[in-house]
Amino acid sequence: MAVFDHVNYTYSNGVSPQVIQFYEKTLLKNAKPELLHGRDAQKRTLPLHNGKRVNFRRFTPFPAITTSLSEGVTPDGQTLTMTSFSAMVKPYGGHVEITDEMQWYMLDNNHKEAAKLLSDQANLSIDTIERDALHAGLNVQFNGGNNVRSTIDATDKLTAADIKTAVRTLKRKNAKPFSDGFFHCIVHPDVVFDLTDDDLWKDISKYQDQSKIEKYEIGTMYKVKFFESTNAKVFKAQTHLYGTSVTNWALASKDDTAKSITLHSDTVMTEDIARNMTGKLVYVQYTEGDPVNTPMCIERIDVATKTVYFRWFPDAAVSAKWTTGNTAKIVPTGGGASDAEVYSTLVYGADAFGDIELDGTGKNVSILINPPGSSGALDPLAQRGTIAWKVKGFCAVIIQDDFIVRIEHGATA
């Protein structure tokens, strides 16, 4: 899936087709399928004139039938049960400004470098958006005997036992492997450095069938196929700040089983707040009574229903104190112990998540070229032009929480 498949072109008079063709070839050449976090996603197209939300469906599996059939009697039919939910798409893009003195119409190195940098940026941007969405899952596994991220240090390295445990979790939830017979895993190069020391690691150089090796595939272990990405998630210390506070997060109801709370109807909640709050640690700072600060990790926020899902949920006595007028401050506790970086390794099965197909019927990606002089009065001396990439709308979402496990751990620096 190349980022610039089925591109649209927007340009002013004066740009020759040869120049457009040059940019097309250069961008396509450098925009190879680097979108590793989206390689296994269910794909949805972005139809034109169809609103900003894309629908996904999650079907409930049928239970086992243990009652035998009666002679001549047809049993009642079964009813398909599914959960339908939607995700909002948002536009993304970037551009560079090129002056007339850089000889816009001369195909020199400046233009080639600009095209390469833009295609790399487009790849990184889309992959990062998808990566962060996949880290909103509820299945979190901490290694090294830890039960919170803040106590993990560099010695708590990923091990074969951690992978084995994650596979067991997926199998218990009836997650299905992919058509290649493996669960898939996205792993950081620093983690590969540690994991490949294990005797159970099977490197791709030892595969019998070399023809089936996929791009970025590096090895297998416990029926898990590993793919390496420098963009794999790393929780760095002092990076989880969202302003200074989120005010008036008043508790309307809570669900201990789902590990969620529903906020009061007048709570301000937007898609931008939800996106920025996901993955953050929140300390509930009480303004009256017992001055206890209770930590909770925000895993996911349903903006429509104002439902907040947590990894660590306070007991009833504590959560009851979260009332109108209290303030939930966002504190810089993104990393591990003593400011250690915490690495995240994703292990998942088929149909765990979905995203927008970039080359769908909506022609989602555009190349925008504006030569010097195309801006009218804003560029009276025809000195400035731009080249840009733009994704008209993109989003990614976890479809089955049970089918994806996030392992948080340390790694050798």
From the spread of the alpha carbons, the general shape counts as: globular
The tally of structural domains comes to 3
Structural class: alpha+beta
Rounded mean pLDDT is: 75
Strand content: 25-35%
Count the strands? 24
Low-confidence stretches: 1-13, 239-247, 286-292
Helix content range: 10-25%
- Main sheet: strands, sense, barrel: 8 strands, mixed
- Discrete helix count: 6
Order of helices and strands: EHEEEEHEHEHEEEEEEEHEEEHEEEEEEE
Integer-rounded radius of gyration:
25 Å
Which features characterize this protein?
single chain, 413 residues, alpha+beta, hypothetical protein PF0899 fold, Elongation Factor Tu (Ef-tu), domain 3, 8-stranded mixed sheet, 7-stranded antiparallel sheet, 6 helices, disordered N terminus
